[in-house]
């Protein structure tokens, strides 16, 4: 077992961290207050990321990415996690599912996405289909040589800035011994396609400015050329590419927790009550000890899961454990940080309440904590026949 | 033209400095270390000269403990072409004094024959502000210190210096030593391709003995102490009260 980062990995961490501190932090208050990312700020972050060679660093070199491994990419995401989700969206990391592009899809979607010319978004969730993906109502039916899409997707992050979306819809149903099972197909849909609208979603308490959008398909007609992967092969595409997004959630939670921890640590050292820094009271000092222990544990769990992916080992359970633990750790750490800060921690003059609000969604999106526990326990019990 | 850039590994500027219990210096054990920020500006300027076609090669050199290798890798990741590490101490708390550093650098200059040396005006750890000047004396080269602008014009360098009274522009003959100030440029981030390439760039390792320079300290540190803690401020209710308080304090 090897612990510690290589010199390159250390430099990647310090470069991304400086980038976040200098290019993201200064705009965070504005985004929080307005709920919007000014277009010029977005463009500047994007251009600087491209110049630095970090844009689409999760893609292989043969398509123009930087070819980072899972571990390195997790380190990049961890440092990005310190900054605003709305802003670091423009430190572009297109969905790696685009690697499933074939034929002229490569020139129309994959390469422009990697170059930062076209932004993507991924659409799976529906009002009636959250954890139960197969319960989706969005459907595509054959009409002549085309497909006709109908239905609604919601909670679609990044769709406000997307030039195209990668959408999962039902294209049929199979009867199985356990009941009917939907067949899923993945489509690439350009913004502006007739019958396709993107509109503002709900106002979330978490990650202001990182909007969740609603997509509506109303007799939206698409040719076969828009199918990503195979017809009815949506689940295969999903399984091949989407597992890693949960590592992203886990590692971002770790980065954000470290930022919050530093605030709590400094406050505990400086704030005086009863004639001494509150950090000298055991009640506070033990909270500090518990926070850093949990953060380090989540960090190691996450990096170890990423390392398994790099080594080609099964990592489904490890990724689920990392996502579960890191997101729940962030909830505890942000809550304790507020407790240490007392009343001021809740005031929006101070950045802390934002991290507390932002932390809430991490236990829900990309698979709720309950779904992660399900994945972990099934992985252990199924081989035993239970 | 070859540009030589000496860089120093120092305590990171974000770290809250703590004095060692015995007062012999600042505690550097398990503390984050980085490239001296002024040296980072020097590296940036050297790379810009190369990009502008005014320099062919940028060589970074660091003198200190073996871990200064990380500092050199940072310089390589920013865009320096190669690096020289001169190991002169085993203990991170052993700070090599400016004269010894300047003597070693003079030997490196003899070997490398650079046309220009760019270095930080001072290191943020001990603020000596001496190495560049001493090196200039040892080599008999012209010097332009505290540069906020630099223009290479054939065989001379035009240096704008930040002096107490304002800005002074001087023209010095090359080869020259230019020590750089804060406003000369804004150092770049290391790009991802350059980070990946840094490991493959040559990094020569030497020792102070290779150059026959004695690095034994000539200065004795008598005492190191924390700055006096600032007294708490007071809140005033109005401008009038503020003026009254300032008058009371003899400040206006």
From TrEMBL, chain B:
<feature type="domain" description="Electron transfer flavoprotein alpha/beta-subunit N-terminal">
    <location>
        <begin position="23"/>
        <end position="215"/>
    </location>
</feature>
<keyword id="KW-0249">Electron transport</keyword>
<dbReference type="InterPro" id="IPR000049">
    <property type="entry name" value="ET-Flavoprotein_bsu_CS"/>
</dbReference>
<dbReference type="InterPro" id="IPR014729">
    <property type="entry name" value="Rossmann-like_a/b/a_fold"/>
</dbReference>
<dbReference type="Pfam" id="PF01012">
    <property type="entry name" value="ETF"/>
</dbReference>
<keyword id="KW-0813">Transport</keyword>
<dbReference type="GO" id="GO:0046395">
    <property type="term" value="P:carboxylic acid catabolic process"/>
</dbReference>
<protein>
    <recommendedName>
        <fullName>Electron transfer flavoprotein subunit beta</fullName>
    </recommendedName>
</protein>
<dbReference type="InterPro" id="IPR033948">
    <property type="entry name" value="ETF_beta_N"/>
</dbReference>
<dbReference type="GO" id="GO:0009055">
    <property type="term" value="F:electron transfer activity"/>
</dbReference>
<comment type="function">
    <text>The electron transfer flavoprotein serves as a specific electron acceptor for other dehydrogenases. It transfers the electrons to the main respiratory chain via ETF-ubiquinone oxidoreductase (ETF dehydrogenase).</text>
</comment>
<comment type="subunit">
    <text>Heterodimer of an alpha and a beta subunit.</text>
</comment>
<dbReference type="InterPro" id="IPR012255">
    <property type="entry name" value="ETF_b"/>
</dbReference>
<dbReference type="InterPro" id="IPR014730">
    <property type="entry name" value="ETF_a/b_N"/>
</dbReference>
<comment type="similarity">
    <text>Belongs to the ETF beta-subunit/FixA family.</text>
</comment>
